[in-house]
Amino acid sequence: MRSGFVRFARTLLVVFFAANALESCLLSPALAQSAEPDLTSPKLIDAGRVQFAENCVYCHGDSGSGGKAGPLAGRTDLTADYVFQTITNGKRVGSLVMPTWGLSLDKPTIWSLTAYVMSLQAKK
After folding, report:
1. Most buried pick, 45, 54, 82, 108, via CB within 10 A?
2. What angle do CA 61, 66, 67 make, to 5 degrees?
3. pTM value?
4. What is the rounded CA–CA span in Å between residue 74 and residue 87?
5. Digits of tens for pLDDT over the chain (124 positions)?
């Protein structure tokens, strides 16, 4: 009987440590994705420009000049966190609705869009 308990305890320890190691492996990429990247990176801004052309120009116009929604170019009141959260969660202002993109775009893509929108602040 004691041998069965020792075997059970050993198996339980192996499962515990394996699960702990797996959790660490799975959690690390998620934490890395949530960190804010360098939003001035030309590569990130270019990736955001491509995504903007595919998903955003209908409402925000070419190069963020404005369309159905207001312009993004030249705005200095937007913070990176605000842009990221708005893209992720969407927003409603009166009759204008910014769709929620967090369900269809991954965090790196949303960060690239954020980088592109932030790069538009210097432009009018």
Report:
1. 45
2. 70
3. 0.70
4. 18
5. 566 665 765 654 444 444 444 454 444 444 444 578 999 999 999 999 999 999 999 999 988 998 888 889 989 999 999 999 999 999 998 888 999 999 999 999 999 999 999 999 876 5
